[in-house]
Amino acid sequence: MKVQVLMSTYNGEKYIREQIDSILNQKGIEVNLLIRDDGSSDNTVKIIQEYAGKDSRVTVYSGANLKSAKSFFDLVAKAGNADYYAFSDQDDVWALDKIEAAVKTLSTKDNTKPLLYYCNMKVVDENLNFLYLLHAHNKRTDYRYSVLTEYYAAGCTMVFNEAAKELCSNHIPQGNIMHDTWMEVLCQFFGTVYYDTNAYIFYRQHSNNVIGVPTSKLQRTQRMISRVLSDSKQPRYEFAKIIDANIGSILSPKDAAEVKKIVNYKNSFIDWMTLLFDRSIKNSSVKDELTFRMLTLIRRA
Known about the structure:
Layout: E1 2-9, H1 16-24, E2 30-37, H2 44-54, E3 58-62, H3 68-78, E4 84-88, E5 93-94, H4 98-106, E6 115-124, E7 130-133, E8 159-161, H5 162-170, H6 179-190, E9 192-204, H7 217-229, H8 235-247, H9 253-264, H10 269-276, H11 286-297
Parallel strand pairs: 1-2, 1-4, 2-3, 6-9
Antiparallel strand pairs: 4-8, 5-9, 6-7, 6-8
């Protein structure tokens, strides 16, 4: 199986060698690494070119600073032909069987439709010391519309097929949305998403993370309070508007109606009440579900 890994880099000289090595050493598959540098000012490009000069599996190109999401969308648009594709951050470390585990899952499915695999991950510090497992194993991930209320799949754990790559290439979104969230939406609505509770990635937390995860209960609580008090931090509402604007016209009537509930609930009493008690739009844990209902009640979801 041929897998093309898509990596966006920006001033990643400190950790990028470890990540590239863990990708090139993946077992059981044929791997190629396509890297887009997003305007680095350090030695990142020099390091990547060093690898490319020694290993034909590594290809790099540079561009203007688009920021993470748009840089990854550019990679998707420029990706070559492969059986499967994977997103990669520049500063993590992958277990040597990370991609093999994903391919074993996806290769047994119907690859004529968009398929997405993602796994759990071990959150670690700068020196790869274990902090915690990101997702509890008892979380439910089979709620079709949970993608409208929470963003469970991390891009660095994703592997997707050719049909998903083509769908994303043809529907690169306008709006402020991350590439991994968009890929999860597309595959949830038009294909199938598979979650693996096993963790095949060491997700490094450090001061330069583009998007990190809170490393303590206090940080998670602070993030939650900030969300409630801020008029600008209402991702479910803003996200639904992006979905509606970009792919609303090609969604099934039922899927489109679920998206519209969130788009309209601030201005429609009926949609507000319907969304508040809609059991098909729900979160994967009791705590997150209660949070969503509370935010919906005060119209800050």
